[in-house]
């Protein structure tokens, strides 16, 4: 069981955005996609979701071409959080989360459990009767995360696809979201995230794939990819690895010399 791209390329107006991509999301694994802005991450995400069709190659879920799945059947197996989900109606927070259960109109008890459970898990329960439009950006993002969780709530071996899910969140809620996502993977869900934070990716991912210039540059477990030289090839910056009992962290190499500017901070 998996969602996978098989030798997928995608072009628009004769410009290649991604080329020869082989990528897989499997149940029980948290897979993080990393790379610079414009590398092709969001294009890969849209291909995995079926929002765009490959120019060549195939996108499959459970061995069946994604184009052969109905929208309803797709919604029963995978849940998606995009960057640009907008609501222009006066919904309450709880009503937004209930949208994740729209494909289960006759399962009222289970729907209630899913909505209340995800609101509690994302620490949005005390906002459930608030107007969604009155929330901060980070609170809206947490509400949307609760919505996509509710869609596949208590249904292991389903898939959770998240495009920059921590955007706009404070540090505590970034950690909360990543810990929930990692726990979902441990329960058997296939979880895929696009992130920009290297340290978060290396802390929580089971597998990391780096995209560069529309191609997969390298893919492996975090332990296999602890290489500042490799990261310099991808990001063009010099990084140092810091080893701690909690894991590894990357920080920029400090090339500053002793200057009046530097002394002003001492």
Describe this structure in words.
- This protein is an alpha/beta fold.
- The protein has a single domain (3-263), classed as P-loop containing nucleotide triphosphate hydrolases (Rossmann fold, 3-Layer(aba) Sandwich), CATH 3.40.50.
- The chain has nine helices and twelve strands.
- It has helices at residues 41-49, 71-77, 93-98, 108-121, 137-151, 171-186, 198-204, 228-235, 260-263; strands spanning 3-12, 15-25, 30-34, 56-61, 64-65, 78-81, 159-163, 190-194, 207-212, 215-220, 239-244, 247-252.
- The strands form three sheets. It has a six-stranded mixed beta sheet, sandwiched between helices. Strands 2-1-4-5 form a four-stranded antiparallel beta sheet, covered by helices on one side.
- The N and C termini lie far apart (56 Å).
The count of helical stretches stands at 9
Overall 3D shape: globular
CATH topology grouping: Rossmann fold
Helix content: 25-40%
Strand content: 25-35%
Give the rounded overall mean pLDDT: 92
Q: Count up the domains.
A: 1
The Cα radius of gyration reads 20 Å
How can the largest sheet be summarized? 6 strands, mixed
**Broad CATH class:** Alpha Beta
Distance between the termini: 56 Å
Structural class: alpha/beta
Element order: H for helix, E for strand: EEEHEEHEHHHEHEHEEHEEH
| Count of distinct strands | 12
What order do the helices and strands come in, and which of them pair?
Blueprint: E1 3-12, E2 15-25, E3 30-34, H1 41-49, E4 56-61, E5 64-65, H2 71-77, E6 78-81, H3 93-98, H4 108-121, H5 137-151, E7 159-163, H6 171-186, E8 190-194, H7 198-204, E9 207-212, E10 215-220, H8 228-235, E11 239-244, E12 247-252, H9 260-263
Parallel strand pairs: 3-8, 3-9, 6-7, 7-8
Antiparallel strand pairs: 1-2, 1-4, 4-5, 9-10, 11-12
């Amino acid at each position: 069981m998996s969602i996978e791209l098989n030798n997928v390329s995608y072009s628009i107006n004769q410009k290649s955005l991604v080329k020869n991509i082989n990528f897989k999301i499997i149940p029980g694994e948290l897979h993080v996609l990393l790379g610079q802005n414009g590398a092709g991450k969001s294009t890969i995400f849209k291909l995995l979701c079926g929002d765009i069709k490959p120019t060549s190659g195939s996108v499959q879920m459970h061995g069946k071409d994604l184009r052969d799945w109905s929208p309803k059947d797709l919604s029963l197996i995978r849940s998606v959080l995009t960057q640009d989900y907008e609501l222009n109606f006066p919904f309450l927070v709880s009503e937004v989360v209930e949208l994740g259960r729209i494909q289960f109109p006759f399962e009222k008890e289970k729907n209630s459990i899913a909505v209340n459970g995800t609101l509690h898990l994302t620490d949005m329960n005390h906002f459930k009767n608030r107007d969604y439009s009155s929330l901060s950006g980070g609170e809206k993002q947490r509400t949307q995360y609760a919505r996509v969780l509710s869609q596949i709530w208590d249904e292991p071996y389903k898939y959770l696809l998240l495009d920059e899910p921590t955007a706009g969140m404070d540090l505590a809620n970034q950690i909360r979201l990543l810990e929930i996502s990692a726990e979902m993977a441990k329960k058997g869900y296939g979880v895929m995230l696009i992130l920009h934070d290297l340290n978060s990716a290396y802390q929580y991912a089971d597998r990391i794939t780096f995209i560069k210039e529309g191609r997969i540059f390298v893919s492996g477990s975090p332990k296999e990819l602890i290489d500042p030289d490799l990261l310099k090839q991808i990001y063009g910056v010099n990084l140092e690895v810091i080893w701690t009992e909690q894991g590894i962290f990357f920080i920029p190499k400090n090339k500053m010399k002793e200057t009046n500017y530097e002394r002003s901070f001492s």
